[in-house]
Amino acid sequence: MKFENIKELINIVSEKGLARVDIEKEGFKISIRKENKTIITSDKSLDVDNTKLKQEKKKNEESEVNDDSNMDIEDENAIVVKSPIVGTFYSAASPDEEDYVKLGDKVTKGKTLCIIEAMKLMNDIEAEISGEIVDIMVKNEEIVEYNQPLFKIKP
């Protein structure tokens, strides 16, 4: 197979939105795969409905504010802490331990609020202000998107 033919196959895969093409001809075999940009890994099996994920992503994009912070001021009283990454939300360091924070807890700047696991790396999410936890917007072991609201803190 000529290089031009391979380039043409790659273009077809890209243009048509195909995930994979396998061709075998006269002892020559080629596999072309197009990977998705979002990779979600977990030790648990997931029953995911793609339409629900797309709706959630659209909702998050609509509510996204153009700033680099993972906090957003909502109303005049509460600050929203948002996820800085895509991953799995954990409310405690392990299943045997207590949650980092509960509704009504007073937190200080720098206190760990939760962990978000992304690609087997544990990322501590810390309070950027001192205040009271007035809302916990996700459940333990829930998959969260980038910029998804996690907590509301009243200063």
From TrEMBL:
Which biological pathway? Lipid metabolism; fatty acid biosynthesis
User: Which stretches are tagged as biased composition: Basic and acidic residues?
Assistant: 50-62
This protein is called: Biotin carboxyl carrier protein of acetyl-CoA carboxylase
Pfam families to which the protein is assigned, alphabetical: Biotin_lipoyl
Name the lineage: Bacteria, Bacillati, Bacillota, Clostridia, Lachnospirales
Instruction: Identify the stretch(es) annotated as Disordered.
Output: 50-72
Picking any one GO molecular function of the record gives:
acetyl-CoA carboxylase activity
Which controlled-vocabulary keywords does the entry list? Biotin, Fatty acid biosynthesis, Fatty acid metabolism, Lipid biosynthesis, Lipid metabolism
Q: What is its biological role?
A: This protein is a component of the acetyl coenzyme A carboxylase complex; first, biotin carboxylase catalyzes the carboxylation of the carrier protein and then the transcarboxylase transfers the carboxyl group to form malonyl-CoA.
Please name the source species: Vallitalea longa
